[in-house]
Structures are given as C-alpha cells and as structure tokens.
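Journal club prep — side note

Before the paper discussion, L.F. wants everyone to see what a predicted structure for a comparable chain looks like in token form. Sequence:
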Amino acid sequence: MPHTSNRVEAAKGNARGIGRPGAEHSPAQGVTLGSGVCTPVVWAVGFALALWLTAAPAYAQLDDATLQAVLALNEEGDRLRSEGRLDEAIAKLDEGLALLVAAVGEANLEVATLRFNQAILLEANGNLDGALLAYAGALASTEAVAGLEHPELIEILEPLGRLHKDRGELDDAVQYYQRLVLIAVNHFGPSSEQAQNGLTQLFHIYYDQGDTPNAVEAGELLLVMLRSGWGADARKLAVAMGNLAIAKSAMGRNDEAEALHKEALAALEDELGPDAPEVALALNGLAVHYQGLDRYEEALPLLVRSLALTEMNTGPDSVEVAVPTHNLGSLYHDLGQFDEAEVRYLRALALWSANLGDSSVRVADAANSLGTLYQDKGDLALARQYYERALAIRRTQGDEHPSVADTLNNLAELERSAENWEQSRTLYGEALAIWSSTLGARHPRVALGLGNLALTEEHLGALDDAWEHSQQALDILGEVYGEGSTQEALVRHNRAALLWRRGDLEGADREYAAAQAIWERTLGPEDPDLAALLDNRAALKWAAGDPATALELHTKAMSIREKNLERMLVIGDDSQKLATLAQLEVYTHGTLSLFRQEFPDDPEVMRLAFESVLSVKGRALEATARHGATLRTHLDEASRTALDALTAIKTQLARAALAAEVDAEATEALMVRARELEAQLGVAVSGLVGEDPSPTLGALAAALPPQGLLLEYVMFRPYTPAALMGWERAGDWRYAVFALNADGELSWHDLGPAAAIDEVATRFRTALQRCSKEKCETVEEWTADAAVVRGIGHELFTVVVAPIGEPLNTAAHLLISPDGALALVPFDALVDEGGRYLLQLFATTYLSSGAELVRPRREGSGAQEVVVLGDPDYDEAGADALVAMSETRSAVQRREADVVARELSGLLWPRLPGTAEEVRAIGELFDDAQVLTGSSASEANLKALHGPKILHIATHGFFLGEDGAVGAPLLRSGLALAGANGVSAEMSAQMQGEDGLLTAMEASSLDLWGTRLVVLSACDTGVGELVAGQGVMGLRRALALAGAESEVMSLWQVSDRATQRLFTGTYEGIAAGESRAYALRRAQMEMLSEGPYFHPYFWSAFIFSGDWRPLDETRTDRPERWMEIPRGGCACAVEREASLSSQSWALWSVLALGVMVRLRRK
C-alpha cells in the first residue's frame, strides 16, 4: 500500500473568527502561524498613572520658500495618492522629505510625520521592506524629540509590530508590542483599546510560537482587564474567552477550554440574541474545539448553525461565510466524507478569492486544504497543483514564514509517496529548519517534522538518525500533549518499522500494538489510518512466520477500507475516482501475494483474494455511472442548472483540446470549474446514492447464465513482507485469472509474466490487421495470412485461456473481464488446440469487471425505440470552403483508413456512401426507427436524444495518439459528425454551435439511460488508453458512463462492406428477439463460413460489451438461450496500449508524522 504521512492543513478561522489550525485552535484576530522565542512582558505591565509629556521640544524653523515647497510637494503627493498613482505619490513625498531633512535634520516631528506617511504609501504599494525602514525612521525621529514614552509612539509601534508579525519575524514584533502595551497602560490605563489590542497581539505571538503557558497568562490578564469593568462589552469578552480557551486546549486543559467556549456563547446569546453574527463566531469556536477532541457528532450541528447564521447576517457571498464553510469542510474531511468536504473547500476558496483577491493568504489556506483532500483521495497530481498554488502565495509573506514550511512539508509528502526519497528528505529538512528557527525547538510542529524526517531516513537506511529523531519527537509531544495523543501513535507506528528493520520483531509488534490501542480509542474502529496500521502489522506477522494472524489483520483492514471507499467514490469526476482507486489497487496486490505464497489451496482465502480484485477493478466506472443514474432521476432546479453548465464545459474542453493551438490557462480554468460543478452535483445526490459495496462471490455466481463462466483477469505484482514496507522491489507484473461458474465454483490460475503475454497480444493484433494495411488482393494472400494469424492466436490461447483447464469443458458462454493489454484482444479469434476459433466454441461477452453482472438494469425515458445515425454531411462549410480546406488537409478516404493522428485540424472527412446503405437497411428492420443522415446526423441531434432503446452510429471514428497535445484520455477519441469539416455561418445556428466532432468526454454526457444497445459502426471505437484494473479510457467507457447497457465497438479500422454485412445480420437477429450478444455472434459465424470474409480481420473487429441478454429480458430471468456446444460440433448450428500506472513498492504503509491532525483519515 502506498506510504502515508501527516500533512499541514490550513488554519480554520479568520482575523475576526475563532478557529484552529489543523489540530489546534487558532485564536481570533491572528491565525498566521508564528515564530521565534518569546520574551515575557505582560507581567511587567503595571497599572501606573498616566505620565503625559507637558512640553514639546521647540520645532526648528523653516524659511518660507522651503516651507512652501515642502507643503506643495506634500499636497501634490496626496492628490496622486487619491488617484491611485502610488509610485508618483511616493516620489513627490520623498522629494519633499529630502528638502525638509536637509533644512531641519532628522530630529523633528514634521520629519516623523512625513516618514510615517511615506511608510503608509510604501506598504500600500507592496514595498514592505521600505515601509519597515520608513516606520523605523518615524519612530526614531519621534523618540528624538518627544522621548521614549510619548503616546504618539503607539501609532508607529503598532504597524511595526504588525508587519514584523506578518513576516514571521516574531522576536522583533514582540519588542514593539511590549513597548506599545507599556506606553498605553501608563498613559491611558488598562481599559484603553490600545492596551487591550496590543496585549491581544502578544497573546497571538506567544501562541503561534508554541509558548502556550505565556499565551495563557497573557490571555488571562486580558480577560481580567476586560472583566474589570473598564470598557468591556460582550463581544470583546467573548473573543478573549474564545482565544484563551484555544490556548488552554493546546495545553491539554480541555475542560477549562470547553467551559470558556460555552461561557462566551451563552454571554453573546444573552446580550445580543441567538441570531447575532457574533454568536456564529462563538459557535464556530466551540465546534472546532469539539472537532479537535474527535467529538464530531457534537461539532457538526454547531458548525451547520454557525454557517447558517453567518449567511443570514452577511449574505451568502460575503467573505465572512468562507470561514465556517471551510471549517465545515474540514469536519467532513475528518469524517471521511470527502464529497461534502470538497464542495465546501471549493466554495471557501471561491469566496476568499472573490472578496480578498487571488493572492490572499486565505486563498492559500483553502488551496492547502484542497491539496490534503486530493492527496487523501489519491489524486496526487491535483494535490500538487493546489500545494504549489498555496506555496507561491505563502512565499509572499517571506521565505522563512512558518506557513511556507507547512506547504513544503506537504510537498515532501508527495515526493515520499512517489518514492523520491532524497527529494522528500530535502523538503522535510527545509520545513523543519524553518519551524525550528521561527517557532522554537520544542514546538509541536518541530516534533512532527522530526517524525516525518525520521520516516524518510528509515527508508534511506539511516536507521540511527531515524531512531534519534523519532525519540526527540516523542519527547516533545509528551511535553506538549501528555501521553496517548494521536501524534504519539504516529511516532510509535513508525518506530515499529525501525525496530523491524533492526531485527527486533517483538519490539516492533509492541509498538504497533501501542499505536493501535491509541488510534482505536481516539479515531474509532473504522478510521483509514487504523487500516494502514493493521496492514503494516499484518506484514510484520507474515515476516515473523505467522501468516494466519497476518491474514486476520489484513482482512480487518480490508473491511475498514471498503467502508471508507464507498464514501470516497460518491463525489468527483471519473478521473478523480480513477486516481483514488489507483492508490488503493496496490492493496489488492498484497492480498493476492499473501494468498499465492501462503494459502494457494485454501478456498476461503481464494474467495477473499477474488473479492479484493472486485473491490477495485472497474469500480470507478460503476461508481460514476451509478452517480449519473441517481442524478438524472433526482434532478432539482439547481442540480439541473449545474448539470447543464457541466455539459457545456465538457463541450468547451473538447473544442479547446482539439484546436490547433491549446490555451493551457483557459483549459485549466475550465477544469477547475468542472471540478466545482462535479462536487456540487455529488453533494446533491450523496444522500440518495446509497451504499455500493463490492459484490460477493455468491451474488456473481447467481447472476451468471447457465453454462456461463466468468473469467476475471488481473494484473498484479508479487510482494514479500519487505516489499510491502518499501524496503525492496516488488516482483515484475504478472497476469492471473479467476474462473467462476454458475455453481459458485472458483478457481485461480497464474498465467505468467505480463511482459511476455503483452508481447504475444501485440503481435496478434498486428497480425490481424497486416493484410488490410498491406492491401492484400488475392484469396491466396488472405488465406496465407489467416494461417499466420491462427498460429499467433493459438500461441496467445495457450497462455491466457488454456491454463484455465477443466472449467472450460462445461462452459458455453465466456464472460470476459480483461485487464491490461488483453482489453484490446478479440478473444473470439483465439485458436484452441484443435484449431478452432473460440467463436466456434463459446459465446463471449466483455465486462469491465465481474461486478457488472449484478448491476441493476438502467431505466430511462424510452422516448424513442431505435435511432440510426449515419452518412453525415461533413462539409457544411460549403463547396468553396471545402475546396480551400482540401488544399491544406489530407483526406480520410475510407472508414477503414487510419485515423490515429496527433491532431484533427489537418484532416478532411469525406462522405461515407456505404453507411447510407447500412443505416437504410437497419432502419427498415424496425417499424419505429428514426433515421438521421446528412446534415441531420449532427452533434445537436445526438445530444438531444433521451434513452433510445437502440442507438446505431455509422461514421468516421478517431483516436489521437498519446504523443499529441491532448492530455485527458476522453478527449483523444471520438466521432466525426455533420459539419466536421467546418460549419458555414448560415449553418451555425442550425447546428447550435457544435463543431461536428463528438469526443468521448462529450459522449459521456449523453442521456443514454435506458438505452439497451449502442453500436458504433466506426473505426477504433473500442480502443483508448489502458489503465490497469480500470479498462479502456475512450468511447467504450464514455458510453457506459452515459448510461448505455451494452455496446458494440471496433478494435481496429474496419471494412465498409464487411461492417455493413455484419450489422445487417446482427440486427436481423435482434429484431427477431435474439439476445444481443448471440445476434452478433451468429452474424460473425455466418461471415466466417462465407468466402469473402473468412479472415478474422473482417469478423472479429467488433466486440460485444455489457448486458448480453435479449433487449426486453430482465436480469432476474435465468436465460436458457445458450445451447450446449459439443467440443468440436458444428459452429454454424450453435445458439448459445498499454500504459500501466506504476504503483508504489511500499504496499503496507508506514505512516509519517506531519504537522497537523490532518491525518490520512482526512
């Protein structure tokens, strides 16, 4: 399983709110993570009488000319400032200041005033270094004239303290706020706003430095000031109590903290009423306190109420709404409800961006939280995008700011996940150095950074360093949190791996047991982190020679993971689901390895291994399709609007991707908006989708037809316990197959190295198409070529089918769920030991996964029965434009032409007259057929369909190679329809703005719910990018996502005449009531027996995928339409790319320490 570690999440709160950064609360009015070593000052503040200066120093006199020049420059500068011309205003002020200083020197209050104004302008213009120098100059000039305790100094000390604090230079900030508080108390008294605000800032600095004792003392003194009756009100008291509660909670004084939160809430409700905006802030504070204690059920209603009050008081689009929205997202993140978390994080980011600007540190906070979410979902590429966005913004606060370290830590986690150990160690080290220098050596962040660094050192073999750093981390955590914290469990979990590597297996097991006990108590029995720990402990038991206990622990981990997976797959687009499953698929490899090496003859463990394959294989397709079905049947007005917007964005993405020049920035903006809409729609139906557990062996057996045999192929890598921990390389990829019959009998067959099998499969596909590509003309040439094809077909049969053995003898119908390169192999064309094609021996149906057998039937509107689309008029631009285009484009001459290209902008699509006859013949077989040809064979008409029973499309297909500019797999394949060569102005309105090219991404948004059969009579419609365990990313997948129950697709460029012959025969059978799969098979058998089409190139190009039954037969009927086939009987009488995503070598993970309580459970 992939390694996991803690990451840093954004602070939950804002400058006026009460929240927490990750595991800790963040006090109101200052959530920026702090730095430095604190200097006690609060207790040095005395309640002395105000000592006013009674006489001011005499001002130096200016001559009239100089005075007038200075005043004029100052006035001109003020005018420029009011017009927003800050650079020019600063220049005028500088000129006047130079005249003044030359005349009177620095020790002058007028000079101090001008320097103060200069600092304000520099700060507004973003020149913070210059602003600090100017403020310091103003301070020096004032001190020189008025002394060190003049109250005018307060106005200068405040921005100096604030800027240093914002830059993470907290030692300097402390000095300025110390002086501010002392002067304010001495001159205005402790009830003064200046004194209380200064003390509040000191409280924040101490808290951010990790010096919670000093923060608590400052907070208590502030509360005494406010309660003394000198100007306090309920609002200020509530904020002070909330801040003090946060600090006490950080010290483990949770009962006192809870009492303060409740007192603040009650006081505000009594004083201001239950619906006041301030009540929302107090609710937020109490909720986040409960969240930090894992009391989620108590936190949730408080945050929901806080958000509702904030929206009611400030409006739904105000910046204030962002804080409770973000915090609610964090709570859902903790609960593993990633669908709810994502939509709220995205909303918070949008609100902060709209109200504060794209460069606001709050935008960085939201981006960081989204990074942690997508990392937990397994979408590491998207996580990196958000982390890098957060880092770029946070660096504007200074490269040494603690928040920079937070994001560096998270990026280190990504590098560790990719097994880039040296880069990971470098980034962890950079983060640790920043935390140590700014927060102090005993800060909890330092402890957690040490833990992360230790994890990387352990993998690099630096065991002594790793042990030392992990011990330092434990010591700090004990000081801060006491015994039994979740952070301690992380460290102990990782120390177990260290002991294991040192050979102390018993000591390692004790550490695992200690960590397990803490997590079961604090996180609950179904937390994902607990699953990771159980798997690691299982690996240890396996290494110790106790596979039975290993299996017990691993089975429990599988159960936890399955429950969390159901929640994780509710939201997000298909690509995000694929990323989640890619991260989890490696667990299946561990299960298969344990079964294969320790329990090869145990039927119960075999069942467990089989069901572990089903838990991930094809799961993204099923989850996305199920989500779409629920959405279409429960559309409210808001969801319909969102769905329409998402469909429009997919069209825009398709156009952008297929354009000659791609606007990367615009495309990325569209992708972001699409993710927001996907999240919104996911939340809209999350409570309606229900549970979607992976199917059991018994359920699948019951769904098989009589004499049906499910062949569940799987690619996997063999692991040892050490490989599971990432300490050695896993074995090379292999193929295996599970065979399950209708009686529930399961068998397992290890087929051998994947590389060797893929090589044969590639040669087979090449051989099938060679004669067509080389333009064979004589029967002798085709016959000789068929012999070669048969030889390679038998070679492939020998390695992928023959090993199944006995189960094949009683089978008549093979339901094939391929994996890897086998997904592009026509099994019908394989040749057995007797020289017979599998077509002659078995009916075959392709499935994305055996789980498809128990998929509920997809009902739709059924508005149309049969729709046949073909012979599109590609030349809607007009004859003149066509002539012009033909000079720069190369024409696609036939449907069987090779339309695999890098881009489509250079292709010219000619009419396919053969398809006109094809659609006419098919249309005549059905009384209610709607036939769309010419300009009617358009994108707009296709997108307007609603669940026709049969949809047949005859046109050009395309598949763009992976070396082109188009990234998303579903944008690289599609169909050419009317207007694909260009649309004239007069035709644009008729075609509703479509471009005539329907990509697979657009096809996935078609309404095909209730469509029993889709046939794509075009080239390459069944190919696409291969993803191990998840099938082919192309039109085949897109139509299933759109709701189609079954599909017929092509695996290579097809012959017009052969295609027409094949589908005429197929539809004759369907119209007569035959099952879908058998009707296609019968037509293929007839072609095999006919002279012109005996070569498998002609009859095996099309494969059937999905529900094989007759169109109107229900799933519960056990079809008896498959006649038993004698092994050698008359076949004619029968009725019956590989781009594999690499996985982490580290299977059972070691949890690294991160900085916040944002664990892998988030």
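L.F.'s comment for the group: Residues 664-689 form the longest helix (26 residues). Keep this in mind when we get to the figures.
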